[in-house]
Every structure is written in C-alpha cells, then in structure tokens.
Fold this sequence. Notes:
Number of helices: 4
Distance between the termini: 13 Å
Mean pLDDT: 88
Strand content: 5-15%
Number of strands: 3
CATH topology: Multidrug-efflux Transporter Regulator, Chain: A, Domain 2
Shape: flat
Strand order of the largest sheet: 1-3-2
Low-confidence stretches: 1-5
Helix content: 40-55%
Structural class: alpha+beta
Amino acid sequence: MPKTRRRRHRTVQRYVTISTVCEVYRLRPQTLWIYERRGLIRHEEGVLEDGRKTVLYSDRDLRRIRMICSFTRDLGVNLAGIEVILRLLDRFEKRLSSTAEDY
C-alpha cells in the first residue's frame, strides 16, 4: 500500500520593516547588519506604498532575532555561541522535517 502524504498548508509570509524590528526589540540597525554579516538572519528588500525601498524581515527572521536577543540579554551568550546554537537548531529542524516527510 503506498504511503499517503499530507499536503502542507501554505502560510502567508509576513514581513516587518527594519524600523519596526529595531523599535520592538530595542536594537540599532547596525546590530541587525552585524547579525546579517554573521549569517544569523537575512533581509529582503521591499518597496513601501510611497515607492521608497526598505529592508524587510520575515517571520523566520523575527523568530531568530527574538532568540538572539534572549540568548544575549538573558543568558549572556556571545555571537559565536549564538552561531553554534542556531546552526544546531537548523540541523535539528531539517532532520525533523525530513523524518516527518517519511511518515
């Protein structure tokens, strides 16, 4: 009997501007650029209603920024440690999703 696969629900990706991220998480834009250079997050470019270009962050990036803030502020983890933690989490998520696809 063939395996049946469930269809994944498509979710609508939400994006937030860099100014909103900075305000909500009390970060400076330079801090976000550091995170990007280290490969911790990635921005996308968007266009505002008035035609100006802006930097946008996805839901995935917001979760990562929230984790980074928690690790640095609450636990005192440095960026090198955060890189290791996020890399391990990424590997875990990939394995989990590939295991889920097998069922």
